[in-house]
From TrEMBL:
Transmembrane stretches, start-end: none
UniProt similarity note: Belongs to the alkaline phosphatase family.
Residues making up the signal peptide according to the UniProt record: 1-22
Keywords, in A-Z order: Phosphoprotein, Signal
SUPFAM superfamilies linked to this entry: Alkaline phosphatase-like (SSF53649)
Domain of life: Bacteria
Pfam families according to UniProt: Alk_phosphatase, DUF7151
PROSITE patterns linked: PROKAR_LIPOPROTEIN (PS51257)
Protein name, UniProt field: Alkaline phosphatase
């Protein structure tokens, strides 16, 4: 048998269906080779599918031979020759075989994203057409304004779950949705450990972000060489923060938090303390007071004079915007100083008899002190020199519970926009830190609903800042100080309510665990555990009862309500804990391209310093002040 294989396809000429052809000679025995008993010669064509051993891309098999048994069919034993005409290999993906991919919306979106990311990199690194890199790095010193957003406790799973919930609240399936900062062009990961701890706290992590130096758990604005709680070890170990550098450089500065403004995250922008718990003088041991250490609230009110005392001849104008909770740490322990919306019979905690809010007003007669929604709304951002806003005795309300505030309090988005409106009056720019502090607190209480709602409000505040600024001169960083032991588990089908019970793909009823009971997608590794508080929006209501960890029969429980608190595996008497895994860093604006891969958390300070040249500008300001 003779075999032939051709590389050019003949299917268009010969056809792909099987056929037989009689020979021209010997058709009926006449004019044959011997004039008698002529036989037919037959040719048969067979189409070959893709993957054929002879023609991997498909083609045609052509068999020929004599019909010896005269049955009109070319049997296998009658084949004398076989030829193959093979289809050529694909030279382009733009053909019908791949149209199912090329026309797929996910495929198209991915192509567009790659193209967009490529251009973003070209623009950021100053190699796009018409741009030339200078001796400085791309984006270096270009950030007139810097905004650092910190979602306290906003781990990766929190971002994912909040993204899905927000999408579902908008009528989508949810998973395809994006939070505002999901759309930022650059992102990376941050390693959150403290110098002395695998799983960190907010004091050590925020100090790292603000100063560029990692430190121990529980200390504020100082390095790891101090001993926590020992006032005498602070001197000489203080760190300079990005806010302080911005202040020295002549920029306006601001701090916004939904937590107490003396809490660890906001405090790390302005204070130096051997213990994060020294929020006011009543929290401090007498030995620390006698040694001359100052409480965190006092340090905030006296920030300007304290900073000037550290640098000879320096003259700064102090922090322009302070918005947050924590009035109790600024007021004397005397009912006469209660604010109209005080919750406690005696609102203030200070045992030194000092009203720090009054002291602030004496220092800044042109400033405004506000404490409720009405006074906040009355602020004229175009003319206001500075503002101190303390909206709650302790932490501000959870986003889901804000409507229940006695005197009303602004949302994080409102606080952010007002802060920017005031700060951008300075032609030299500004530094602003915005913290969504209550994401962390809702997680500690084991209440996913509260944590996710605060995360969504945080994302709205980020979007407001994006809308009010330009990538040309404003660096915006969105990150977290640490995560929580908060999980997204099971195999729920696409679009399943993120706060609901797991319903498997193709099913309509909740899946059952090995114990015969349904289970939720969201849960906690440890904490106070199960609560069914229905429509209660205050996550802290969880603390009214002892821990109730372990499995519960949720068959008749609506787990999507605000007051549902997820089950926890390990019972803890106090609260759920932080986690030690990496958190996200999302960035846009000058220098944003420097964020990629996995980074030490202290890198965030160095990014702000690079983009804003804070150290250089502060150094340049100091000689003129001497």
């Amino acid at each position: 048998m003779t075999l032939f294989k051709y590389s050019l396809i003949a299917a268009a000429v010969l056809g792909l269906s099987a056929c037989s052809l009689e020979g021209d000679d010997g058709k009926d025995g006449t004019d044959g080779s011997n004039g008698s008993d002529g036989v037919n010669s037959l040719v048969m064509q067979t189409a070959l599918v893709v993957g054929n051993g002879q023609c991997p891309n498909g083609g045609v098999q052509i068999d020929s031979g004599l019909d010896d048994n005269r049955d009109g069919v070319l049997d296998s034993g009658e084949i004398d020759a076989t030829e193959y005409v093979c289809s050529p290999g694909n030279t382009s993906v733009n053909n019908a075989e791949l149209l199912s991919s090329l026309n797929n919306s996910w495929f198209v979106a991915g192509q567009q994203e790659i193209a967009s990311n490529k251009q973003t990199w070209l623009d950021a690194t100053a190699v796009a057409a018409g741009k030339n890199a200078t001796s400085k790095g791309p984006g270096q010193g270009k950030a007139k304004n810097i905004i650092l957003f910190v979602g306290d406790g906003m781990g990766i799973s929190t971002v994912t779950a909040a993204r899905i919930l927000e999408g579902q609240m908008q009528g989508k399936m949810g998973e395809e949705h994006q939070l505002s900062f999901d759309k930022f062009p650059f992102a990376g990961l941050s390693k959150t450990y403290n110098v002395d701890a695998q799983t960190p706290d907010s004091a050590g992590t925020m100090t790292a972000m603000m100063s560029g130096v990692k430190t121990d758990v529980g200390v504020i604005g100082v390095n790891e060489n101090i001993s926590r709680g020992d006032c005498s070890t602070v001197a000489g170990n203080e760190l300079v923060t990005a806010l302080e550098l911005a202040e020295i450089a002549g920029k306006s500065t601001g701090i916004v938090s939904t937590a107490r403004i003396t809490h660890a995250t906001p405090a790390a922008t302005y204070a130096k303390s051997a213990d994060r718990n020294w929020e006011d003088v009543s929290d401090m041991p007498q030995a620390a007071i006698d040694a001359g250490c100052k409480d965190i609230a006092w340090q905030l009110i006296n920030f300007e004079s304290q900073l000037e005392a550290r640098y000879s001849g320096l003259d700064v104008d102090g922090i322009e915007v302070v918005f947050g909770g924590g009035r109790r740490h600024f007021l004397p322990k005397d009912a006469a100083y209660n604010t109209p919306d005080a919750v406690s019979s005696v609102e203030g905690d200070r045992t030194d008899g000092v009203d720090l809010t009054a002291n602030w007003q004496l220092q800044y007669p042109g400033g405004e002190y506000v404490w409720d929604q009405t006074s906040f709304d009355a602020i004229d951002a175009t003319t206001t020199e500075r503002v101190l806003g303390l909206f709650n005795e302790s932490h501000m309300q959870y986003a889901a519970d804000r409507a229940n505030d006695i005197a009303g309090e602004p949302s994080l988005t409102e606080l952010t926009t007002k802060a920017i409106d005031i700060l951008d009056n300075n032609q030299q720019g500004y530094f602003l830190m915005v913290e969504a502090g209550r994401i962390d607190h809702a997680h500690h209480a084991g209440n996913a609903y509260g944590a996710l709602n605060d995360t969504m409000e945080f994302a709205k505040a980020v979007q407001a800042a994006v809308d009010m600024t330009s990538d040309e001169d404003t660096l915006i960083i969105v990150t977290a100080d640490h995560g929580h032991v908060f999980t997204i588990a099971g195999y729920p089908k696409r679009g399943n309510p993120i706060l609901g019970k797991v319903v498997n793909i193709g099913a309509s009823e909740p899946a059952m665990a090995a114990d015969g009971m349904p289970y939720t997608t969201l849960g906690y590794t440890n904490g106070l555990g199960y609560r069914d508080l229905a429509d209660v929006t205050d996550s802290d209501a969880s603390y009214a009862a002892a821990a109730d960890a372990g499995r519960k029969d949720l068959a008749e429980v609506d787990t999507t309500t605000p007051g549902y608190h997820q089950e926890a595996l390990i019972p803890l008497a106090d609260s759920e804990t932080h986690s030690g895994e990496d958190v996200g860093i999302y960035v846009r604006g000058p220098g944003a391209w420097l964020v990629n891969g996995t980074n030490e958390q202290s890198m965030i300070f160095h990014l702000m310093n690079y983009a804003g040249e804070l150290t250089e500008k502060a150094d340049a300001a100091l000689p003129a002040a001497k």
